[in-house]
Amino acid sequence: MSDGRDGTPEAAPDPDDGEDADSGRSPDGGHASATPSTHTVRLELVDEPGQLLAALQPIADNGGNLLSIYHERGNKTPRGRIPVEVDFEATPERFEGIVDALRSEDVNVMQAGTERYAEEVTILLFGHLIDTDLSDTLSRIEACESASVADVSLAAPQGTEEVSSARLRLEARAGETDAAIAAVRDLAADKRLRVVEPLTGVEA
To answer: Helices 51-61 and 92-104 sit at what angle, rounded to 10 degrees?
Structure first.
């Protein structure tokens, strides 16, 4: 085949020009844009008007394409808040930005994608739990990114003004159980509460 002007054969296309179909590289040697995939975040929201919309805004603002929202109004968390599960599409980079944006807006992200709380531990707290504001105690534990409060069982046989106990079941991120327990220990010292920590190295 000629170029139609001087009879010189037309050069064959350079296989290195354009995107490499096998490697996913673009002409400048970089990588092609990542394909969006489905991600799930599990949030904990205060039961107040406008909270759901405020939580969804960072997702939309940072490139997430909302797919579904599961609003569990009848199944509140130990802190009396509402769990909400949101599915959306986003590239990996945008997904990380969305999670950071949610946390910067003080939205409690209980689970993000494959970031799961893989370890479970139960501890006991003793002391004036009511007088020292149990809700605040739970909120400060939740503020520790290493763990989430999965369940709370309060016992106050002598009344709320006397010493009571609480059994806390914590879900900690893989490898961060020690950090979660340390956070509870520091909080207990601040509120003059006693902590019974789980035994380690002993099989039940």
So the answer is: 140
Gap between the terminal Cα atoms of the chain:
80
Task: State what percent of residues in the chain have pLDDT above 70.
Answer: 73
The sheet with strand 37-45 has its strands ordered as 65-71, 82-90, 37-45, 108-112
Beta strands in 8-142 (DSSP E): 37-45, 65-71, 82-90, 108-112, 119-127
pLDDT of residue 60: 92
Within 10 Å of residue 192's Cβ, how many Cβ atoms? 9
Average pLDDT over residues 105-112: 81
For residue 116, which phi and psi values (nearest 5 degrees)?
A: -110, 150
CA 151 to centroid of chain Cα atoms: 17
Separation CA 146–CA 152 (nearest Å): 17
Please give the Cα distance from 94 to 136 (Å, whole number): 33
Domains and CATH numbers, the chain: 37-112 (3.30.70.260), 119-196 (3.30.70.260)
In the chain, how long is the greatest CA-to-CA distance? 104
Q: Does residue 201 carry a pLDDT above 50?
A: no
The answer, yes or no, to whether residue 29 has pLDDT greater than 80, is no
Which tops the pLDDT comparison, 3 or 174? 174
Q: 68 with 107: CB under 8 angstroms?
A: no
Q: What is the mean pLDDT of residues 35-51?
A: 86
Average pLDDT (36-62) is 88
